[in-house]
Design brief:
There is one protein chain. The chain is mainly α. The chain has one domain: MFS general substrate transporter like domains (Growth Hormone, Chain: A, Up-down Bundle). Helices cover about 75% and strands about 0% of the residues. The longest helix is centred in the first third of the chain and has 63 residues. The chain is globular and about 70 Å long. The N and C termini lie far apart (about 60 Å). The N terminus is likely disordered.
């Protein structure tokens, strides 16, 4: 027979086990409910947002496909007129990105996204009716105006719904849409090429009109699908909304006040503008985005210069974009699983630099080596650009600092859209040594900066774990502590 002491020990042991079992069950239930909620977000939001991004990217870069179908001759473009028409879009695109992102919450994503998409779809369609350079320039400026803020706004919008560890894959879904737009755009341009002469129209006119119409329809549909944020979504019940708030608390996305009577928090805007992480990541993003725009717009031109016909060129762009999409897919999932960004972004830069080195080193060795170089560039391109875009919002927990940081990131990055067309000059065909060399340099410096940021963020986390940043809390009120955001000693950066 067991002694009284043994029985008491067993009871005490049982009492200790019950809370542990209860806690384990609660954690498992939370994870199960959280996965179900995230799946609901994915099915509701991502299809329409991805479709809109595909169309926004197509409408922005299909001028590269149009060039193969008498585009310049029909509009009387000579010299560097084509490069001017490509780059002019980014004047309005860059000018309005940051203001749109800061005021997105006040405008409401449910209103802004449908309105912007419908407007740029109309402008894209109208481009098919342009008769001269002046009209084309005006339409490109309008396209930049209406597309400004869409992609940074959507990236910011996704942070309302997903945790930091979930964001990489969702931005992958969005950003890989540019690769999908590339190869589907090439395939569509190939098919539309056979419409040349129908109703007396050149194929490039059909290209703009037929790619503008779906954008308009998607823009209208998005109004009935999107919600401003999870707490205002009519398709979430009260339990799901409470779960949303719990997920935010666990993710430290509540560090820093999100609302002060609906007013813009200008102190958080200033904090973003003076944060070294934001500044360095913006400069790095400029370098990788030079590659994105020069590659996306001039890939058909580069391949055509290797001696292929217009129809063959459209088809040969498809493997390049498909390679980029597949590689980015694998890397995005791995990056989220490991909660690491820097090492993958740097690796993407290294791969793309290798591709540009091949393009520069094989200029006189035939089309095969040159084409292989374009595929290798694509393998690193979407990783370098996409992971970089994910990294900044991961490390800015407060609403207006995150909005400003992302807005600055896209604004600085898209300045490259003004530069890129002029480094691939018409007179440099067929090898484009200047364009390849400048892009190589931009991607190389971006890789170095991304590596430095990763090392410094890792070092900062270790200092916080050792308590070396606890002094930050001394002498501060609760309101002041609430505004520390990512400077709070308990916050850990994703590096």
């Amino acid at each position: 027979m067991a002694s009284s002491t043994d029985q008491q020990d067993e009871l005490a042991h049982d009492d200790l086990e019950k809370p542990q079992i209860s806690q384990l069950e609660a954690e498992e239930d939370f994870e199960k409910r959280s996965k179900k909620l995230v799946r609901k977000f994915d099915l509701r939001l991502l299809p329409i947002l991805v479709a809109l991004y595909i169309m926004s990217f197509l409408d922005r870069v299909n001028i590269g496909n149009a060039r193969l179908y008498k585009f310049e001759a029909d509009l009387g473009l000579t010299g560097n007129d084509y490069q001017l028409c490509v780059s002019i879009l980014f004047v309005t695109y860059v000018a309005f990105e940051l203001p749109v992102n800061i005021f997105l919450k006040k405008m409401g994503p449910k209103n802004f996204i449908p309105l912007a998409a419908t407007a740029w779809g109309l402008v894209s369609m109208c481009t098919g009716f342009a008769q001269n350079k002046g009209q084309l320039i005006g339409l490109r400026l309008l396209l930049g105006l209406f597309e400004a803020g869409f992609f940074p706004g959507v990236n910011f919008y996704l942070t309302f719904w997903y945790r930091r560890s979930e964001l990489g894959v969702r931005i992958f879904y969005m950003f890989t849409a540019s690769a999908a737009a590339g190869f589907s755009g090439g395939l569509l341009a190939y098919a539309i090429g056979f419409m040349d002469g129908i109703r007396g129209w050149s194929a490039w006119r059909w290209l703009f009109v037929l790619e503008g119409i779906p954008t308009i329809l998607l823009g209208i549909a998005s109004y009935f699908i999107l919600a401003n944020d999870p707490l205002s979504a009519t398709w979430l019940d009260e339990d799901e909304k409470r779960l949303v708030q719990t997920r935010r608390d666990l993710d430290n996305t509540s560090l820093g006040p999100d609302d002060e009577g609906g007013k813009v928090q200008w102190d958080q805007v200033r904090a973003a503008c003076t944060d070294w992480k934001v500044i360095v990541l913006c400069i790095a993003q400029f370098g990788t985005t030079v590659m994105l725009y020069s590659y996306s717009v001039f890939l058909p031109t580069i391949i055509r210069a290797l001696g292929y016909s217009g129809i063959q060129t459209q088809l040969l762009t498809i493997p390049c974009y498909a390679t980029g999409a597949v590689v980015y897919c694998a890397v995005a999932f791995l990056s989220d699983k490991m909660s690491r960004r820097g090492m993958f972004a740097v690796a993407g830069c290294v791969v793309s630099c290798t591709g540009y080195a091949i393009l520069l080193g094989t200029a006189d060795r035939g089309a095969g080596a040159q084409y292989a170089g374009t595929i290798i560039v694509a393998a690193g391109l979407y990783v370098a650009v996409g992971i970089g875009l994910t990294w900044m919002p991961n490390n800015l927990p407060s609403h207006y600092k995150r909005a400003t940081g992302q807005g600055l990131d896209f604004t600085v990055a898209n300045l490259s859209g003004i530069v890129s067309p002029f480094i691939y000059r018409t007179g440099d065909s067929p090898r484009y040594v200047l364009g390849h060399a400048v892009t190589f340099g931009c991607v190389a410096y971006a890789g170095v900066l991304l590596a430095i940021v990763s090392v410094l963020l890792k070092r900062e986390n270790k200092k916080r774990e050792r308590g070396e940043r606890d002094y930050v809390l001394e002498g501060k009120s609760e309101a002041e502590i609430a505004k520390l955001g990512d400077y709070h000693p308990s916050y850990r950066y994703i590096w």
